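QA checklist item 7 of 12: single-chain prediction sanity check.
[x] sequence parsed
[x] length recorded as 122
[x] structure emitted
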Amino acid sequence: MSAGAERVSPERRPVAAVFTSHWLAMVGLGLILTAIIAWGCLITVKLRTGEENPYIGVASLIIGGVLIVGAILTPLGLHLGRRRLETTLSSLMHDHRRAWRRPPSGRRAPWRRGRRGRGACS
């Protein structure tokens, strides 16, 4: 982080923004949720049939591996996403006065330039 950048407090950073800020966090979370749902389905099948099936054991091993991979990818993606959000926010908020400055009178704001006389109501 640069010397002039302020640290963003955790209260100002919503959880959804952190989870969606990096693709690794989303993939890891998706793998974890998929593994939990598949494991729940596997347990109900095992309890319903009541007999031994070797493929249920193999499927449980695969689902456990998917859960572990998701549990490794999610914190890594969260760390990278937080770092990306901090650099983005620090670059945007580098000059606090500029964020609140209005354009001088007589000049149009940059997002409003060139819109005179165009449209249905003009």
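[x] summary fact logged: Residues 21-58+66-82 form one domain.
[ ] second reviewer sign-off
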